[in-house]
Amino acid sequence: MDFELENPPSDGISSLNFSKYSNNLLLATSWDSKARIYDTNANQLIKLFEHESPLLDGTFVSEKEISLGGLGKQLYIWNIEQEARQIVATHHEPIKSIEYNELHKLLVAGSWDRTVSLNDQRTKSDTTFVNVSERVYSLDTIDNILVVASANRFVDIFDLRNCQTPMQRRESSLKHQTRCIKLFPNSEGYVISSIEGRVGVEFIDESSMNKKYAFKCHRETVDEVEVVHPVNAICFHPVYGTFATGGSDGTISVWDRLNKKRIKAWPKYPSSVAALSISADGCMMAIASSYTFDEGEKE
Fold first, then answer.
1. How far apart are CA 63 and CA 21, in angstroms?
2. pLDDT tens across 20-68, in order?
3. Which PROSITE patterns did the record assign (predicted)?
4. CB 233 within 8 Å of CB 276
5. Does 252 reside within a domain?
6. How far apart, in whole angstroms, are the C-alpha atoms of residue 179 and residue 169?
């Protein structure tokens, strides 16, 4: 059953993230400088957090805390119940991507200043900055692995047990600008997408590189001309290991990476699919149908 959440953001949606600690709590960030937490079971907006500038990403850090960042360059922890915030890192440029690593208790944020901050949530005062090759466009972390996709199409792969320098730095198999990167649930590889309607499947272990592959998607034919759309979002199903992609063509597809085939396609949405997230139990998928400014400002 599909339904629209009430009280949606008033501007473009920049991220969606279900809580790992609850199957029904969804965090949405927006260019309207607000973050919202929804109870998806009740279809109710339950918390609203206002910032001074647009937010580009957010994630749950615990049952009672979220982290937010964006054009304001500062990484925040919000206490959901007390609605009080704390600055845990300050970057020199906007923060583009935020993830929480449960194993290492690290809040990880990637910025356009070409650094990644790692804040130890056991103290909230101990923050390490590591350099990456270019502006961070997307990152993900699971277990001991952190992958960072940058503006120059390079991917830095870190082992969080020794993360001062990347253990690998490799060029993306895709020829155009990266939009999103997501690790496999077992952290043995990742899926990466680009602005040219293409997705790559790659592996962390360099001895498995012969297994990597890429495929075309989120393309359509208009007046006998192929139109190629950016692939903005990727999310994995926590149980089955399949993954979904969302594109600026307004469509969503679900893929079986092992058998290399599409297993489901959604009807087209009225605008770009800007973000996707699947609940911790795998029973819900949140979809942000929101213009992503691929064609500049529109009325």
1. 6
2. 999 999 999 999 999 999 999 999 999 999 999 999 999 999 999 999 9
3. WD_REPEATS_2 (PS50082)
4. yes
5. yes
6. 18
